[in-house]
Design goal:
heterodimer, A: alpha/beta, Rossmann fold, 7-stranded mixed beta sheet, two-stranded antiparallel sheet, 25 helices, elongated, B: alpha+beta, SH3 type barrels, 6-stranded antiparallel beta sheet, 2 helices, 6 strands, 15% helix, globular
C-alpha cells in the first residue's frame, strides 16, 4: 500500500454480498459525510463518503453494489467488478478492499473473499454483526480465520456505538506504514468448477476456524411460519399494504394541504407586495408555485420511504417479494414491484422513486414504465369534475351508483393497462435478454435501527429535492412562461391565457385533437395541465373565464355540461387514464433512469395509448348517439 | 456434475414438497426450462451456496401453485422458483 501523503486521501471500497450489512457499516463509518450520485453513463447509484479516523487520517470510502461474485451479471455488479479491478476510467483503483461479511452467515461471503484475493489488491475482511454471532454462540477464531484465508480480519458491529473502533484502529495502524505489496492480478471470471472449488475451500476454512452455533436462530423460523404462510402471510401482506396505502394517500394529505396552503399564502403575500405585472406573476405563479410543486411531494415520499426502509431493515421486503412473485410474475413484473405500483395510486413520483427496491435493471425499468398508468390522486379532481357534470347520479340494477361505477371503471382501466403494457414490454421489447430468475436470500429478521433509517430517509429526501426538484422546478417555470407570454393587448376582454404561447400551442394541436372530440378550449387547457393533472381543472376554468370562488369546480362543471357533448366528456376521461399529463413524473423518470430515452419512451407510449383510446371512445359514443 | 456416485434415487428439488430434507447430489442445470442458460444457472446456484454435499430443507412454499420455494441451504435461506430448483438434484 502506498503511504498516504497529507494531501491525497486513501481510497477504500466496501465490497460484500447482499444482506451483509454493508450499507449499515457504510453509514456507521461515514456518518453524514456521504454523497449519492450516479456513475457516468449508467443508472447505478454511486455512494461515497469520508471516514475520519481517530488518528486523524482521512479516507474516501465508496460503497459498491452488493454482489455474490465479480462476474458482473447486471450493470450494478459490473460497476463493482470494474472498480475492484481498477478498470473504470472515472474512478481511481481503491487502495484497500474492505470485504464485509455477516458473521452469522459466512459460507457465501468467504467464497467471495477467496475470489477477491485473486485480484491482488490489498484486502481486509470485516466480520460485521459480530455481536449477534457471539450471542448465538458462534465462536470465530479470528487468528485461524485470518491465517487460513491469508487476509487480515477485523470485527465490527455497524449498528452499535463504538462498534467500528477495531476497524478504525486497524486503518490508523496501516497509516503507520505498510509496504506496497503488489501481487499480480490473476482474476478471471470463475467457471462453475472454480466456484465449486472456492466454496469447498470456504467450507473447509469454516470447519477449521468457526464453531457451529450453539443457539441457532429460531425466531426467524417461527415468525416466517406465520408471515410466509400461504393464507395468513398473504392476508398480513395485504393488511400491511392497506396501511401503507392509507398512510401515503390519506396520512400525507394534511401535510400536503398545509404545504400547498403555505405556498398559496406566500404567493398571495408576494402578490400584494409586488406591483401588478410580469414580475408579480413570475414570482407568484412561476417561482413560488414552482418551488411549492416540488416540496408538496415530500410528505408522500418521506412516508413511503419510511415504510420501505423499515421493512427492508427488518428483512420483510424479501419475504413480500416471495409472496408476490407468482402473482406479479404473471404480468412479467418483479415480486418487488408491488410497493412502487401501489404507491403510484397516491402519486407516481414516490412510486417511481420506490422502484429502487428492485435490483434488476430490466424489472425496474418495466415498473417505471407502467407506474404512471396507476390512477394517481391528481386524476381524482379531473375525474370527479367530469363525472359529476356528465354522468347522471342514478342507480343501476337498483343498487350500484352509476357515477361510482364509472370511477371504478377508470381505476380498473388503469390497472389493467399497466399489466397489459408490462406484459407486452416483457414479451416484445426485452426479448434479447432472458428473464432474470427470481433467486434471493431471505435474511434473518433484525430490528431496524433508527439512525440507519433516519439516514436513509434523509438521503432520499435530499436526493429528491436536489435531483428531481431542479427539473420539476424548471418545468414549472417553463409552463408558467408558456401560459403567460406574450401578454394580452391592452383592453383585452378575453382571459390573458388566450393570448399566450400555451393558447397558440393549444390552437395548433386542436386539429390533431379534433378527431377525439376535443375543442380548442380543452386543447389550450391541456398545455398548463402538463404541470399536474389537477391543474387542468383550474386551466379549464381560466379558459372559460369562470370567476374563481368558493365552489368554482361546480361552476366549471355546469359550464362544461352546457358546452360539451357526452362523447367529448367520455373521451377526455379516457384521455386522462393514459395521457402523460404530468411534467413532474416525466422529470422523475428522467432523473431515476439517468436518460432522456426512457422519459421519451414513456411520454410517447402513453400519448399514443391516450390518443387511440380517446379516439375509439369518442367515435363509439358518437355512433351510439352521444355526440 | 463432478460427483459421480451411484445414480440411485436422486430427485429434483423442484419437485419436492415442504418439509423435504436432503443433501445436494448434483447440480444439473441443462435439463431445466429456465430462461437462463444452463452454464449461467449453474453458476448462480453455486454462488448462492447450492453446492454438492450441502444440506437442504424446503421451509416454505409460495401461496400460488406452491411456487416459489424457500430453501434452507446449510445456514442460509434462499427463495427461488421451482423451475430453477429443478436443476438441483437431491438425495
Amino acid at each position: 500500500m502506498t503511504t498516504a501523503s497529507e494531501t491525497s486521501a486513501w481510497r477504500f471500497a466496501l465490497v460484500g454480498t447482499p444482506n451483509s450489512g454493508k450499507t449499515a457499516l457504510f453509514n456507521a463509518l461515514t456518518g453524514s459525510r456521504q454523497k449519492v450520485a450516479n456513475y457516468p453513463g449508467v443508472t447505478v447509484e454511486r455512494k461515497a463518503g469520508i471516514i475520519q479516523t481517530p488518528g486523524g487520517h482521512r479516507v474516501d470510502l465508496i460503497d459498491l453494489p452488493g454482489t455474490y461474485s465479480l462476474r458482473g451479471r447486471s450493470p450494478d455488479e459490473e460497476i463493482t467488478r470494474d472498480i475492484v479491478l481498477g478498470r473504470l476510467a472515472s474512478e481511481a483503483a481503491p487502495d484497500l478492499l474492505l470485504c464485509v461479511a455477516d458473521a452469522t452467515n459466512l459460507r457465501v461471503a468467504l467464497r467471495l473473499v477467496i475470489e477477491l484475493k485473486q485480484v491482488g489488491r490489498p484486502l481486509m475482511l470485516v466480520l460485521n454483526m459480530i455481536d449477534i454471532a457471539r450471542r448465538r454462540g458462534i465462536d470465530i477464531d479470528l487468528v485461524k480465520l485470518s491465517k487460513e484465508l491469508g487476509v487480515p480480519v477485523v470485527t465490527s458491529t455497524a449498528v452499535r456505538r463504538g462498534g467500528t473502533e477495531d476497524l478504525m484502529r486497524r486503518i490508523d495502524a496501516m497509516a503507520a506504514g505498510a509496504a506496497d505489496a503488489s501481487i499480480p492480478n490473476t482474476w478471471k471470471p470463475p467457471t462453475a468448477s472454480d466456484l465449486r472449488a472456492a466454496q469447498r475451500e470456504a467450507d473447509r476454512i469454516i470447519r477449521v476456524a468457526v464453531s457451529a452455533a450453539a443457539r441457532p436462530e429460531t425466531l426467524t423460523g417461527r415468525v416466517d411460519a406465520v408471515l410466509l404462510h400461504p393464507v395468513a402471510g398473504l392476508l398480513i401482506l395485504l393488511g400491511l399494504l392497506f396501511v401503507l396505502f392509507q398512510a401515503v394517500f390519506t396520512g400525507a394529505k394534511p401535510l400536503m394541504d398545509f404545504i400547498s396552503a403555505g405556498f398559496d399564502a406566500l404567493g398571495a403575500m408576494a402578490h400584494d407586495a409586488l406591483p401588478a405585472g410580469l414580475l408579480q406573476s413570475f414570482v407568484q405563479n412561476g417561482v413560488i408555485s414552482g418551488v411549492g410543486s416540488v416540496i408538496v411531494f415530500l410528505p408522500q415520499i418521506l412516508i413511503l420511504f419510511l415504510f420501505i426502509l423499515l421493512l427492508e431493515d427488518l428483512g420483510y421486503m424479501a419475504r413480500a417479494a416471495f409472496l408476490m412473485d407468482r402473482i406479479m410474475g404473471g404480468a412479467g413484473l418483479h415480486g418487488r414491484a408491488f410497493i412502487p405500483l401501489l404507491s403510484s395510486f397516491a402519486c407516481a413520483i414516490p412510486g417511481i422513486m420506490a422502484t429502487r427496491v428492485i435490483d434488476n435493471r430490466r424489472d425496474r425499468l418495466t415498473t417505471i414504465l407502467v407506474a404512471p398508468l396507476m390512477t394517481c390522486s391528481a386524476r381524482i379532481p379531473v375525474y370527479t369534475l367530469i363525472i359529476s357534470a356528465f354522468i347522471p347520479d342514478q342507480q343501476i340494477w337498483g343498487w350500484v351508483g352509476l357515477q361510482g361505477l364509472v370511477m371504478f371503471g377508470l381505476y380498473a382501466a388503469g390497472i389493467f393497462s399497466a399489466l397489459a403494457v408490462s406484459f407486452v414490454a416483457n414479451h416484445f421489447f426485452w426479448r434479447e435478454n432472458a428473464t432474470p430468475p427470481f433467486m434471493i436470500e431471505l435474511p434473518d429478521y433484525k430490528m431496524p435501527r433508527l439512525p440507519n433509517v433516519a439516514m436513509g430517509l434523509y438521503m432520499r429526501a435530499m436526493m429528491f429535492l436536489k435531483r428531481a426538484g431542479t427539473t420539476i422546478f424548471s418545468m414549472m417555470v417553463l409552463i408558467w412562461f408558456l401560459a403567460s407570454f406574450p401578454r394580452p393587448p391592452a383592453g383585452a376582454i378575453e382571459p390573458a391565457i388566450n393570448f399566450s404561447l400555451a393558447a397558440m400551442i393549444g390552437r395548433w394541436i386542436e386539429p390533431i385533437l379534433a378527431p377525439v372530440g376535443f375543442n380548442w378550449q380543452i386543447s389550450v387547457a391541456l398545455v398548463p395541465g402538463m404541470a399536474a393533472r389537477e391543474v387542468a381543472v383550474a386551466a379549464l376554468g381560466t379558459v372559460y373565464a369562470i370567476e374563481g370562488g368558493k365552489d368554482v369546480a361546480a361552476q366549471i362543471g355546469q359550464t362544461l355540461a352546457g358546452q360539451w357533448s357526452l362523447a367529448t366528456a367520455l373521451a377526455l376521461l379516457v384521455w386522462y387514464i393514459f395521457a402523460p399529463q404530468c411534467a413532474s413524473t416525466l422529470a422523475v423518470i428522467k432523473r431515476e433512469t439517468g436518460s432522456w430515452r426512457w422519459m421519451v419512451i414513456t411520454f410517447g407510449y402513453m400519448l399514443a395509448l391516450a390518443y387511440a383510446a380517446s379516439l375509439i371512445t369518442y367515435n363509439v359514443a358518437v355512433a351510439l348517439g352521444a355526440g | 456434475m463432478i460427483e459421480n456416485g451411484s445414480p440411485a434415487k436422486t430427485a429434483s428439488l423442484g419437485l419436492a414438497r415442504k418439509g423435504f430434507r436432503g443433501r445436494i447430489h448434483t447440480i444439473a442445470a441443462a435439463a431445466t426450462a429456465s430462461d437462463v442458460k444452463a452454464a449461467e444457472l449453474e453458476r448462480r446456484l453455486l454462488e448462492l451456496g447450492f453446492v454438492e454435499g450441502a444440506h437442504v430443507e424446503i421451509l416454505h412454499e409460495g401461496p400460488l401453485g406452491r411456487d416459489p420455494i424457500a430453501v434452507r441451504v446449510n445456514n442460509t435461506t434462499i427463495a427461488l422458483r421451482r423451475r430453477e430448483a429443478m436443476a438441483v438434484l437431491v438425495a
